[in-house]
Specification:
two-stranded antiparallel ribbon; alpha+beta; 103 residues
Length: 103
């Protein structure tokens, strides 16, 4: 937004001067956006820290029972399968090396 000031004067009857000044304002739009963004960020942090996670209202004394069944069986089976795969790979490698030495 600009504001224009004009002043007319003359020092003699045959000369007239017009002095124009233009004053500009509103050059701090970028700074205003940065400050506004910081205010919003602080507001979100305050909300998250003080109001968003209200643990005091949660029920106290509720028991949570977690049971995991069948994990030991599947882990044991996976370990046995991995052992078999490693053994088979070792045998295949030994056979390939023997075949290459024969040729």
């Amino acid at each position: 937004m600009s504001k224009r000031n004009e002043r007319t004067y003359s020092d003699r009857p045959d000369r007239t001067y017009v002095e124009r000044r233009e004053e500009k304002s509103g050059g701090n739009v970028g700074l205003s956006l940065i400050v506004g963004g910081l205010v919003v960020a602080v507001g979100v942090l305050v909300w998250a820290l003080y109001d968003g996670a209200d643990v005091a209202d949660s029920p106290v004394g509720d028991d949570v029972d977690v049971s995991v069944e069948g994990v030991a069986d599947s882990t044991g089976t996976a370990a046995e399968d991995a052992d078999d795969s490693v053994g088979n790979a070792a045998e295949d490698t030994a056979e390939a090396a023997a075949d290459q030495n024969d040729n």
